[in-house]
Write a structure and sequence with these properties.
Layout lengths: L1 E3 L10 E6 L2 E6 L2 E6 L2 E5 L4 E6 L3 E3 L1 H9 L3 E5 L5 E4 L9 H11 L1 H15 L10 H23 L18 H23 L16 H7 L7 H8 L5 H15 L2 H12 L12 E3 L4 E3 L4 E3 L13
Parallel strand pairs: 2-6, 3-7, 6-8
Antiparallel strand pairs: 1-10, 3-4, 4-5, 8-9, 11-12
Helix pairs in contact: 2-3, 4-7, 5-6, 5-7, 5-8, 5-9, 7-8
């Protein structure tokens, strides 16, 4: 049986993230509702990218099932930017993008091409093909340092560098706490987009070796335009961690990030224009079987293919 998923909102058309704390999340029909001291709020799970659960939250098994069915990722976030992710099923049922990512990851030449494209997205000018990867990293370091300096000057915030101890969260200055909280939100949105498009979060190209390496790769594309200005603006607020979540959400809308993220992923892997007819369809069949030079139909009894004389 095939079920058309086009009734579900596209990732690019949905909400970026919702942060909840000191509340209980329960299933409500095919969606969820949040219960807190302020009352009950229905949440459109099918149109939500990431649900961020802060301190003092509880969520039911049924609610997790509803969020997974809607392709919404769930992230538990706490002080010190410590996060534990629980990922629901992505909205893509095709393996096309994952296979393209795996090919690029495993081939040194393709891997380098992806890295250069990812750095290219960060710069306003074309990155010369003559630059080595080390030189590009140097240019990126300068760009980020200038972004910090510009935001500090614009919002009148003293800046001594990115420095804080996760074990002593309260001792960090407001702008560093805001940067960490803002990054946590951006990571959640990027992870939701990556899963929605059918890619793996673990197969990173610039960052490698971690479960969320590709999340860090993708988030770095947008930190200077989304998180850095929001964090320096929030630094002057009484609760910078709370303020930065609102400002990051506003900047995600302003930057049209939900649409850009998916388009950028296609460009990074050179998948533009490559259509997959089954991308929006749930197919409960087991798929095909690899057979060295071709693919054969799966879900069939192949006992008759065995050599009886073996």
């Amino acid at each position: 049986m095939k079920t058309n998923l086009r009734s579900l909102p596209k990732f690019r058309d949905g909400l970026s993230f919702l942060y909840v704390e000191h509340a209980v999340v329960e299933r409500e029909a095919q969606s969820v509702a949040v219960f807190s001291a302020a009352g009950r709020v229905s949440v459109p799970a099918a149109g939500l990218g990431t649900l961020l659960l802060g301190p003092g939250t509880r969520i039911t098994h049924a609610a997790m099932g509803a969020l997974a069915d809607c392709g919404c990722s769930v992230a538990w976030v706490g002080e010190g930017a410590m996060r534990c992710y629980a990922v629901g099923t992505g909205k893509s049922r095709s393996n096309r993008n994952l296979e393209a990512q795996a090919r690029a990851f495993a081939d040194a030449g393709l891997h380098l091409a992806v890295v250069r494209r990812m750095y290219q997205l960060r710069f306003s000018e074309v990155v010369s093909a003559s630059l080595t990867l080390q030189q590009i990293r140097g240019k990126e370091g300068v760009r980020v340092r200038e972004a910090y300096a510009a935001a500090a000057q614009e919002y009148g915030v003293a800046w001594t560098g990115r420095n804080y101890d996760p074990g002593s969260w309260s001792k960090a200055d407001p702008v560093n706490r805001a940067l960490s909280a803002g990054n946590a939100c951006l990571y959640g949105v990027c992870q939701a987009g990556i899963h929605s498009a059918g890619f793996s979060t673990g197969l990173g190209f610039i960052h490698v070796g971690k479960q969320l390496s590709f999340v860090y790769d993708v988030a770095d594309l947008y930190k200077t335009s989304v998180v850095i200005p929001a964090a320096f603006q929030a630094a002057g607020e009484p609760k910078p961690e709370t303020a930065v979540r609102r400002l990051v959400r506003d900047r995600i809308v302003h930057e049209n990030l939900l649409s850009r993220l998916l388009a950028d992923l296609e460009w990074i892997f050179d998948l533009r224009g490559a259509e997959d007819a089954d991308a929006d369809v749930v197919d409960n069949s087991p798929g095909e079987l690899w057979d060295v030079t071709r693919l054969i139909t799966g879900g069939q009894q192949h006992a008759g293919d065995a050599d009886d004389g073996a």
